[in-house]
Amino acid sequence: MAESTSDIVPSARALLKERDYLCFWISRWTGSFAAQIQSVAMGWQMYAIARQTRSVQESAFLVGMIGLAAFIPVFLLTLPAGETADRHNRKTVLLVCFAGEIATVLTLAIATWQGWTSVQMLLIVGFLFGAARAFFAPANTALGPMLVPRALLPRAIAWNSLAWQTASIIGPAAGGLLVAKSPTYAYFTTFGLYLVAAFATFLIRKNAQPTVNPGSRWTLMKEGLAYVWNQKIVFGAISLDLFAVLLGGATALLPVFARDILHVGPQGFGILRSGPAIGATGVALLLAANPIRRRAGYFMFAGVATFGVATCVFALAPRIWPSHVLWLSVLALATLGGADMLSVYVRQTLVQLVTPDAMRGRVAAVSSVFIGASNELGEFESGVVARFLGPVGSVLFGGIGALIVTGAWAELFPALRKADRLE
Question: Distance (Å, rounded) from C-alpha 31 to C-alpha 20?
C-alpha cells in the first residue's frame, strides 16, 4: 500500500461527484443494513423457537439450516441470474429483487405479529429470500462499475465494501436491540429500509442496459463459466475464499454462543454480530485510503491465515480469559472480520479489473455462488459439525480447517501467491 492516508478525502470527493454512484452507494448501504437486521432476527427467532422443545445442539443445527435454505436457490439459479444481469437492464433487475425481499420480510413481520411463525416457515422464507438474492448479487456487482470512470474503480470497490461493512456494524447491534423488544419491530424496520434502498436505486439515471453479446442463453452461460475457469488467478482467489470461509463460519453460531455459552442475551448477541464488521470497516477505510499496489497475493493469503487464527481464538475465548470473555470474543471477531475484508478486497478488485463489462454479470454470478457457499453453506456446515462436536468444537474445527486450506491453496495456485499489482 503506497498512498498517504490523506488520499481518502479526495477519493471520497471524486466519488461524491458521481451522482448515480452516490444513489447506488446509498441503496447498497441501506439494503445491507436491512439484510443484517433481518438475518439477526431470523437467526435469533429460529434458535428461540427451537430451544423450546430441542437441545442446544439440535437448535444450533436448525440455525445452520437457515443458511442452507438460503443457499440452495443461489446455487440453482446462479447461471440464469448471471445471464439475466448481462442481458437485461441491471437497474430493473435490482428493483425486481428488492420487491422480492420486501415480500419476504413483510411476510415475516405479519406472521410474527400474529404468532404464526414456526421453524418450517422460517426455512421457507429463507429459501425465498435466497432466490431474490441469487439475482440481486450479480446485477448489483455488475451495475457499480457502470456508474464510475474506470480510474475510480478500485476506490469504488473499497467504498462499496465500506458501505456493506458499516451497515454490518450498525445492523446487528440494531437488530439485537429490536429483537430484545420484539422480532416484529425488527421485521417492520427492515421493511422500511428496503423501501428506501429501492427508491435510491430508482433514482439512478445512467443507462444500466449492458451490451449483449450474441448467442443463446446457454452459450452466454458457458462463456461465463469458461472465463472464470481459464483465469486461474481469479478462480484460485474465489475458491480460496470459498473453502476458508466455508469452514470458518463462526458467525453462524453466534446465537448459540450468546445465549448458552457466553450468557450475554440479545444485546450481547448484537455486540458479537457487530464484531466482524467493526474490524472489516477499519480495514476497508485503510484500503480506501491506501489501495494495495504490490504483493496482492501475499496480502490475500495473510488475510485468510489471520482469519483462521482469529476463529480459533474466538472458540477458545471462554477458556483463555473467562473474566473478560465478551470483550476478548469481540476482539477475535473484529480481527476475523478485518482479515476477511482484506481477502475479499483483493478478490473483488482482481475480478472487476480483468472482466469485460459485457461479461460482468455472469462472472459476478459465479463469484456470488462461491460467496453464498462460503456464507450460507458455511452456516449449514457449522450447524452440522456443532451437532456432533458442540458449538465450541465446531468453531475450532473451522478455524483449523481455514489454516489448512490456506497452506494447500498456496501450493496449488503459485501464480495467485505471487500475484503482484492490482492495477
Answer: 16
Distances (CA, A) of 350 to 134, 204, 228, 297, 416: 22, 26, 12, 10, 11
Q: Amino acid letter at 100?
A: G
Closest CA to 45 of 180, 173, 174, 155: 180
pLDDT tens-digit readout, 57-103: 788 788 878 878 887 887 788 778 877 888 889 999 999 999 999 99
Close Cβ partners of 66 (under 8 Å, ≥ 6 residues apart) = 42, 43, 46, 122, 123, 126, 379
Among residues 60, 295, 67, 90, the alpha carbon closest in space to that of 211 is found at 90
Calculate the CA dihedral of residues 298, 302, 304, 310 and round it to 10 degrees. -170
How far apart CA 126 and CA 70 sit, in angstroms, is 5
Cβ contacts of 322 within 8 Å, gap of 6 or more: none
CATH number of 10-417: 1.20.1250.20
**Residue 109 is placed in which grid cell?**
413481520
Q: Which residue has the cell 429500509?
A: 193
CA 34 to CA 136: how far, in whole Å? 14
List, in sequence order, the alpha helices (H) in 51-182. 56-87, 90-114, 119-143, 153-181
Instruction: Answer yes or no: are the C-beta atoms of 386 and 64 closer than 8 Å.
Output: yes
pTM over 0.70: no
Q: Cβ(67)–Cβ(379) under 8 Å?
A: yes
- Grid coordinates given for 35: 439484510
Residue-wise pLDDT tens digits, 194-235: 999 999 999 999 888 887 666 565 676 677 677 777 777 777
Amino acid 341 reads M
Average pLDDT for 124-137: 90
Dihedral class, residue 57 (left if φ above 0, else alpha if ψ from -120 to 50, else beta):
alpha
